[in-house]
TrEMBL record:
Keywords: ATP-binding, Kinase, Nucleotide-binding, Serine/threonine-protein kinase, Transferase
One Gene Ontology term of the molecular function aspect: ATP binding
Reaction it catalyzes: L-threonyl-[protein] + ATP = O-phospho-L-threonyl-[protein] + ADP + H(+); L-seryl-[protein] + ATP = O-phospho-L-seryl-[protein] + ADP + H(+)
The protein's name in its UniProt record: non-specific serine/threonine protein kinase
Amino acid sequence: MAHHYHSGGTHQSYPSPTVVGVHFRVGKKIGEGSFGVIYEGVNLINNQPIAIKFEPRKTDAPQLRDEFRTYKIMAGTPGIPSVHYFGQEGMHNVLVIDLLGHSLEDLFNICRRKFSVKTVAILAKQMITRVQAVHDHNLIYRDIKPDNFLVGRPHTKYANFVYMVDFGMAKLYRDPKTMQHIPYREKKSLSGTARYMSVNTHLGREQSRRDDLESLGHVFMYFLRGSLPWQGLKAATNKQKYEKIGEKKQTTPVKELCEGFPEEFGVYLTYSRKLGFEDAPDYDYLRSLFDNVLQKIDAQDDGVCDWMLSENRGRLECHDQKLRPADVARLNTARGTTSQRQSDRYQQGNVSHEASRTSHQLSSTHPSRTRINPSGSQQLLNPGHKYSGRDDITRPQRHNIAAQPANKRGLWDKLAEFLMCRSCTS
């Protein structure tokens, strides 16, 4: 399963109950995250595969209850997994959602850390649509990264349909009843993943729809280039590292970042960076940019992405089945095809890759999640987990709705009231 929830340094022991929520059978453990662990399982009523997340009830940064609420808000939205259950099992909160396939980060690694222009254009259209759906539900996502976009399960009709998961950092950007936008603020703590976050987020500015879209633009260029210019920067402290990343983003011209690729990628990034704090993005226009890209390279949005090509299918099977390289070679030989990837008129030569590339395993670890305060002090949320030197930073302080004072709960309460009214009139 591609819900890649990686260890953030927490090492709690988790029970393995046979069944949770009356009819969800727990299977094998398939991943970890800062919140806890995740298992695959099966719905005993309809025999459908599901994913089961466990989180300690006494965690300092509870996430699953708010994630459950967000999934309920987004219920029925294409590309958002269905939520089936939230409850308590012993000392743990449990969330049950659809089981999905690989993350785009996994598929990127399987394709040797390069996607073709065609694949990125196809993905871009879907990813913009998913982010638009989140925004249409009055939410901003705030942690755009390839790990949080998954495709459907293999060998299903949704195998190349992009899903969005992990809504633990989502936040209302407007009142769902009055549509009043949240106010602009500065000196905000960083939240998101530094590699992909917007320039304004680095500058401590309140996030809005524009920041999700800019982060998508950084992801698109990561897929095309294989890496971003602000990866691998060295610094003595986390705070200094994040400052360096932000400075490099600000000083790297869009034209230079997108050099060697269709101009539409630069147009997209420039557009998103020029949006005002409360501006409503023109999502149709942004999607049309990538239709133009496909037309330029004489390609179709046929759903055929790089990981489906014969040269990559063997590595995909190796990843799925943990086969040895010799087994993969036999698979490719038996298949009798050695087709090369479709040549791309827009390819950039000699893009430097990170010196060491480790395979992106389900059990691989991500660096400790950190909150950086405006004062510069940092709080390691997973004490004892050493800084890995990578540029990932997320802030898992979740909005614990029940624990918030009344004046902090207004938007969520209004959203609940709005949804109840809408369900009564529908």
